[in-house]
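Lab notebook, bench 4. We co-purified these components, and the gel suggests they stay together. Before we commit to crystallization screens, I want a quick structural picture of the whole thing.
Request: model the full complex, all chains together.
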Amino acid sequence: MENGDEMNPFELRHQVRSGAFRQPTAGYCGDYAQANLVILPAQHASDFLLFCQRNPRACPLLAVGEPGQWQIDRLGADLDLRSDTPGYNIYRHGELAEQVHNLYEVWRDDLVAFAIGCSFSFEHMLMAAGIPLRHIEQRRNVAMYRTNIANAAAGPFAGQMVVSMRPMKAADAIRAVQITSRFPAVHGAPVHLGDPALIGIADISRPDYGDPVEIMPDEIPVFWACGVTPQEAIRHARLPLVITHQPGYMLVTDILNASLAAF
Amino acid sequence: MENGDEMNPFELRHQVRSGAFRQPTAGYCGDYAQANLVILPAQHASDFLLFCQRNPRACPLLAVGEPGQWQIDRLGADLDLRSDTPGYNIYRHGELAEQVHNLYEVWRDDLVAFAIGCSFSFEHMLMAAGIPLRHIEQRRNVAMYRTNIANAAAGPFAGQMVVSMRPMKAADAIRAVQITSRFPAVHGAPVHLGDPALIGIADISRPDYGDPVEIMPDEIPVFWACGVTPQEAIRHARLPLVITHQPGYMLVTDILNASLAAF
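Here is the predicted assembly.
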């Protein structure tokens, strides 16, 4: 398999499609946005679209397809949503039923795909600005936590916001607010910083998802709304069928991160 | 004296000039920038200009005059720097020698005036965004602290940064970073938030200038570079003559705060 920096998103997707690339996408095609994927039947699509509209920090939408549409121009040339993500989770009635590498057999004409912005985009921007990210330095998954911040409900979709946490020095935290504020399409500004208990996190050393990461005495924990939020809401909705990407195995799009800057 | 909201800056300055207005300017002409004033002999002006350039967060320059110039178009129509500030401090060899209401007797052809942005501008923006500011609610002066953050020296001007502190909830602190980042001409983004000890503040309940303010358990202290920084640097330089405004008795300019937005 080729080096990530040498592949463009088109090439990476074709390697995924052929089965040559079956690993997490972090670190590949860093200039381009990677997307969380949610695919569900059209009868629930308008409720989920409303859920995303009402919870834009956790569920910033990069694109939404038409029923049955597995190619969305906005996301990439020659893209196939059925095959271009290195791993898919299939949930039935809220339970993980299968993990597959393509959706050719499960695809239906009533399925609607949602591509949701991913923190990989702003992490790339933070590192480009010289802000160290410990979980990346230590090659771990980012630490994620359930909070007591209620999502705005829409149909069967509700639940609490999930956040990712990155420890940083205060001056870097201020710079990180500035940088990520420019990118509302990939979660935007932090939702909290400082005392974890104020958003319902009892023990910062025990994340609900991902890996724990040390917070140094001169650092402050900074929390962003996380793309796991919609997955939690979807599972709790217990729909007969929902398909997502496997966490970390993202859809790599043709959208330049820099093009997502709101200002 | 007329109500502050009814006066425009031109009218306020004329009331100041006539002696009808001799009080702090906070709360007057809220849509317009108020300025810290530093006036010193031309022989030290280039060093002080360099000091401001090297310490832009503490010393954001709105305007600099030519030697002897007491009218600066950029600051306001029909403005007279010798009379339009409600109170002036005259320092001789670093000591406060006199407090006067105008500079007619002390003005010289070699004096250079520096107008430095003031946090009143961004406080107006924060309150307009619904962020409560406790020192204003309690009608106190903002709490200010000497830090261990060294200024970049220029000629005789050096010393440490002075910061102002405003306690706020984390979500408001994040919003405040966004709002104040747009206004580098009035100190811009915070320089620190969270643990005061990390910037050399031993006791947050005892400010070095201004009034103490309570920090609630669900709040975080947020620190901005403060316009008192250049005054400290100037006093420590012990020049034969320096003139400043009296703290709180600012020069009210014709510059709309909104026009200072960098983006």
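Chain A has two domains: 4-18+30-118+237-260, 120-229. Worth comparing against the SEC data before the next meeting. DSSP finds six helices and eleven strands in chain A.
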